[in-house]
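Illustration 12: Protein DEFECTIVE IN MERISTEM SILENCING 3 isoform X2.
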Amino acid sequence: MLLGRVQVADIGLLLSISPKALAVHDPSKFNQGGQINSSVFAGDRDTMQNGAAEAVICNSKKLQDAMQEIGLKIKHHEDNIKFLKAQKNILDDSILDTQVALGRYQSASEPGSQNNESSNRRNEEEIIEQILKHDKSAAGIYCQLKTHHGPQVTHLPLLKDVIGIVALLGKVDDDNLSRLLSDYLGLETMLAVVCKTPDGIKALETYDKEGFINKSSGLYALGASIGRALDARFVVICLGNLRPYEGAFIADDPQRRLALMKPRLPNGETPPGFLGFAVNMINIDSANLYCATSTGHGLRETLFYKLFSRLQVYKTRTEMLQALTVITHGAISLDGGIIKSNGVFALGYSEVEVKFPKSSGRSNLPENYFDTESRLKELKWKRDRFLEDLHREQTLLDHAKFNFEIKKQEFVKFLAHSSSFATPQKFPAGGEQSTPIS
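Figure caption equivalent — predicted structure in token form:
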């Protein structure tokens, strides 16, 4: 039988021993001196010997079956590990080839794009400065840490699950649209902290036995350590708890925009002035475009779909109001109109402090550049999943080997115990005692 990478030869030898040769006498028929009790008659002796033999055979069979079952599990886990390692190696080669291709694209880009990148970088820095003005906010603390420590901030145990701040996780092509979308969400949501899993939320805020906030730990302690005391409520969005968009994506779209059904008037036409859905007007960096969560969903179909849902965008307020019958999840217009939901209108004007940065201009790159970026992200995500599967299979394999070793020791002890009765003894007639068994 197949027992994986265990001592097959030794176990095979153990299992090859016939259990029928192990059990002849019932040990209960011997006194403490190893002698046959004088009260046992010859007729009863045969019956007892047969019963003892059957018990030994049964126990031996159970041990052998258990060892065989564990051995098959060992072989199964070893085969799984072999397959997963082969797939991981293939992914490693593909990742390397894709990284080389991206490097070639980047080196071939036009020098003029550097000016656009520099301009948009300054724009993002201005947004960060606006966030830092909210010095006692969770977003302000996070941005200060990231400004001073850069990518290393993600290595802090407290922040390793944090993806970022809503305002910095998306970009918009037009300043006016950026202001409107930010106004629609509100400052509290724009400054919300985004985590991957519920564990990230637990790390940010802890409580004492009475249920009060423990300000000597979590984000409170971290803020105090850099001179920014956190003294207000803050919003945290957990991607793992959001129900993602489950529909299709626009085909061949490097930004993986959602294939949402356009609103239709009773005559079947799209309302005049309809520009699209807000969720598709957010540009997402490649780092978060694909597989921002452990389940393989990106920010568009989780975070921004939750925030905007099917929010419609129109050119003018007049056109937006004319389309009220087909507006189900709110709408905005480029001239400042906002409908929060059916029957709920936002009037007046508000100054937006924190808005989405402008999108980076990289139109000089090849058309398939973003597809290649997305593919690289997908390949890395798949490799991470294979690594998780490898770790799980290795743990199961180690556990199965441990159980096999225990059964092996039980079987060896069983053989040693049964061997003392393997050789039939000659009993004197009339039930007389024999010499003690050595």
